[in-house]
Every structure is written in C-alpha cells, then in structure tokens.
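Justification of resources, computational component.

The compute hours requested in this renewal are based largely on the per-chain cost of generating structure records like the one below. Each record pairs the submitted sequence with a full structure-token output. That output is archived, and it is also reused by downstream analysis tasks.
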Amino acid sequence: MIADRARFRYIKKLQRAAGYRLPDGAFHPANLEAIIGSMNIDSLDIGTRNQILHFYKNFLECNCRDSPLCGCPERKFVIEILELREMGLNHKEIHNRLLDEYGVDLFPGDILSFLENSVHLLEAVCRVADIAGKKELVELSNEHIRQIAR
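The structure output for this chain reads:
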C-alpha cells in the first residue's frame, strides 16, 4: 500500500520530541501512537509542529476503538492522494504538497505507480458493476477514472 512507502522527512526532530527512537515510516504504529500520546509537540519548531498537527487532524482523528491502529489513517492518506490527483495535481505536485503540508516524503514514482494501479482497480470495479447491472456505480467509476487518468 502507498501509505507503507510514506516517510517523515524530519524524523530526527520527531525522535527528539518523543524522547526515543522512531522508525521513519509515517504510518508505522510506533509513530502513530507517539503522535497521539507521548510526543512533546510543543518542543518542535513551528513549521514541523504545524505539519504534525495537520497530519494528526487529517489522518489520525477517528472514533474507532482501535485508533490509531484501526487502518483509518492509511485509508485517509489514500483518499488524500486520490483527491489531490482529481484536483488536477500531477505526481510531482502531489509529492510537494504532502511534503509541505505534512512533512511526509513519498517518491513521485511511487505516487505515479499508485495512481496507475488505482485506475486499473477502478476499471475492474467498472467491469464487475457493468455485469451486475449497477449503472450508477459504472458511471461513478468511469468519472473517477477520467479524473485520475487525465
């Protein structure tokens, strides 16, 4: 999954704020739990603090019992990438936006591969929906394919 490839650019700063070593994977359980609980966010510089707060607000806020290890953060991240693409950003611009907003680094090539795989998955959904006679789902899938593939 694309969330597994996401890395915090400023992991050393986050490690200092947490007071212990953290993996660089943005969606690694240790990082999610540190951001939710033990990290001293006030010790971060204003830019990094804002990025972590945006990360928390957009990906970690949910009401699941197992939060933040419920899978919602990863799903929200996937949705964010797809929405950015549907807004017209290319893979390089998406990379820059994720880095600026959240301090999350993701190779543009990984983003491009993810978008291509998403189109293939939507095409499969479209074919199955067509066979099942679900016209509304076919139209919705085709619209998302057009928005991602443009």
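The chain has a mean pLDDT of 95. The chain has one domain: 2-107.
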